[in-house]
Amino acid sequence: MTRASLSRAAGALAALVACASAAPACRSDASAPAPAPQASEAAAQKPPVDQALPGELAEGAEQAFGLPIPRRMKVRARFADAVFAVGEIPAERVANYVRTRVLAGNVETGPAKTIFSRATVKSAPQRMIRIEVVSRAHISELVVRDETRAPAEQGVSVEERWRRSGLTPDGKVIDPTRLE
What we know:
By secondary structure, the chain is of the alpha+beta class. Helix content is 27%, strand content 33%. The chain is built from 4 helices and 8 strands; from the N terminus they run ααββββαββββα. A hairpin with a 2-residue loop joins strand 6 and strand 7.
């Protein structure tokens, strides 16, 4: 036999072996279970429940109008319509934390401030809030303002609403002495 015929025979034998080994995989055997992913692959797909991803901030116990304050931030002031929190966290990380938890009508991003206007918290959509993430030296400030409007009074005419606010329907002041 020549070398050419030997190499052709070896190639044919390799093709035959490949077909024979692939044939069992082609059968539709419903009883054969799919191979389970290795432990290292399963662990790489999702993090453990009790751990945050690298660079991700954990939620704290305090809230501002339904928005959880990051664990590493402290509430410095709380009012009926605003909450102020500060922490030694980069403002970019705080903005990313907020971004994953709210639906915002408008987001303005600048070098020192990110503003989430007309936002609602995904877990508490009944409130309209405004969130500001401000970078100040080595700290970040989180300002959450409640901008939810009170529902309109039912059964009150437009003229009566104007009168209750001290104006006529064309916008003129009813009693100018009350403004002094």
